[in-house]
Amino acid sequence: MTPPRNQKNSSDDLLAPVTLAVGQEDLLLDRAVQEVVAAARAADADTDVRDLTSEQLQPGTLAELTSPSLFAERKVLVVRNAQDLSADTIKDVKAYLDAPFEEITLVLLHAGGAKGKGLLDAARKAGAREVACPKTTKPAERLTFVRQEFRALGRSATPEACQALVDSIGSDLRELASAVSQLTADVEGTIDEAIVGRYYTGRAEASSFNVADRAVEGRAAEALEALRWSLSTGVPAVLITSALAQGVRAIGKLSSARGGRPADLARELGMPPWKIDRVRQQMRGWTPDGVSIALRAVAEADAGVKGGGDDPEYALEKAVVAVARAARLRR
Q1: Is residue 152 within 8 Å of 177, Cβ to Cβ?
Q2: Which of 2, 29, 197, 201 is deepest in the core (most CB within 10 A)?
Q3: Neighbouring residues of 255: CB distance < 8 A, sequence distance ≥ 6
Q4: Mind giving me the DSSP string for 6-32?
Q5: The overall pTM is greater than 0.70
Q6: How many CB atoms lie within 10 A of CB 216?
Q7: What integer pLDDT is reported at residue 31 of this predicted model?
């Protein structure tokens, strides 16, 4: 393999030698990776994809992965949390950026910010294709995201329908994207507020599962924010403990199941295929001990909200923090 000439990469060139995905929104980061992988496999069905954490990319590893192949196969190398790479590994990556190989697409996922900024600057200077993956923190941003999702699928939705969807689902972009996909698949014509209402009437259930999703993903601050919002809008505490229990049990079931396609695992575990995909994303960082700790914490909270304690709200907050910490035992 021979290095190409050093040149600026077009933002729409999915097979650019280096793609830099910057931000902390997991759905957008995953989509940035998926787009590159899909383009590479469209060009070469036998593309070798390596998805690595910052811990897995040690000094010398990049040189091994990019060494010339007798078969000149196309590769996609994904490096997650690139801001956490060691100083020696960053030197390796910077050296590679000066002369990337044509058959290899390097995808660096970087949180942005001050940590690892030297690598960020080096990738930009080298002409990396950049994809913005910012965290959506404002309701208006989530509303814009929903509108864009409908537009990308070639469908129309009224402003009221988009707002109702955000109100029902909450802040999770993955859940919002899934909801848009479901509505466009099931409903013909313009999607209005009444249609959203029919599909997502259980706002309390949606809110409680939003708390659980943030907790099992190890995002304690966001889970606590969702918890306080849920309680302030009248969501019963028992629904929240039930959602927490279901979320932790799903991770326990999937982590102990045999590998396989989502459809096969769905039949084995009694979950819909879309849930298998979501739980797989949420499993990062979980250990068997973490599942046990989290289940005990949820059981204690359940007893607390059903009359076994003096402060149900505190019992829920304690459980949410315990679950979020359990999700990060391996990190």
Answers
A1: no
A2: 29
A3: 283, 286, 288, 291
A4: P-PPPTT-TT-SEEEEEES-HHHHHHH
A5: no
A6: 28
A7: 93
